[in-house]
Amino acid sequence: MKSTHDEITDMLHGYLHGTLTEETAALVKAHLLRCDECAGELFVVETLLKIEAPEPGDRYFNTLTNVVVNAARANVPKKSHLWEFFFRPIPITAAAASLCLIVYLVIVNWGGFHSKQMQYGNKMAKNITVDVSASDDIMYSLEEEYSDDFSTGNDDGDDLAVAL
Amino acid sequence: MDEDSRLEDNRLIDSYLDEGDEVALEEIVIKYRREVYLIAYRMAGDMEEAKDITQKALISAVAKLKDFKKKSSFKTWLYRITVNAALNHMRGNAYKTVELCETMKSEDEGVVCRLIEKEQERNLKVLLAALPPRQRLSVILRVYKGLSLAETADVMGCSQGAVKSHYHSAIKKLKTTMAANQTGEYL
Fold this sequence. Notes:
The complex is a heterodimer.
Chain A: H1 4-17, H2 22-34, H3 36-50, H4 58-75, H5 82-85, H6 89-111, H7 113-163
Helix pairs in contact in A: 1-2, 1-3, 2-3
Chain B: H1 2-19, H2 22-44, H3 47-63, H4 74-92, H5 111-130, H6 133-144, H7 149-156, H8 160-186
Helix pairs in contact in B: 1-2, 2-3, 2-4, 3-4, 4-7, 5-8, 6-8, 7-8
């Protein structure tokens, strides 16, 4: 529940701006005579209202209007139609690139599939042959090496025996 | 009057958004540019900064115009954008001092009275600038813009109770400091 004091406080602005009815204004005036708090608030508000802001001038305001309108003009989004999407440079480039990629993949994976497979098969067969021959060579060379060592050792022993 | 203004604003906004009518946009900017500047000035306390804030706020408001739902008035919505622009700007210049030279008005004819008044206003302006941002904002919107509690709460994005609390704390501080200054002067 509002007290009379609170009600009057809320009406002080209306009183200052002259928007109250004559009766209400008289009520506020009577309250102000006996309430120091409200009278003090009114004095502060009246003093605040006397402080004027410096005027920047018509030139500033006119330039400001132009600046704001120009900024708005620059920000207005252009109305777009669906058909425009397909004629934009980026989607065209992207579509062309995608098409090229698809064609390339088709050629590589489909057209060149058989020849690649044949080549791969031949290569595998060749590798196996090479491997077998290589292992034979290795085995041969190992046998030769060990036999040489063995014979050399024996030769040394013979030589030693001969020397003794 | 307010309702007429609101309908007119909505008509201009629709005209700009639907038909790209730049004249309608220009009309809105012309209608509110000074209001925006004054809020910015009261918040920043410096003319050059206020100019920057005004430009930023208006450009931002026009860019966001399509997001304006018309639930509140355009004026309240624009004030909210201005306040946010001012707070963001001030965060970047937290330690900047407040400009003191400004024009003052006085209806009093006496030279001494005018000087005292001028001094009071100057002091009050410094005190206002020293208030925490939300308290200052509540004073600016309530006193200078004459917004109701509900409108101020809408602009500040808080409850009416919070606005009341900020506003009364601010006024209390200003009143106390002004009284202390006056007592000090006359001692």
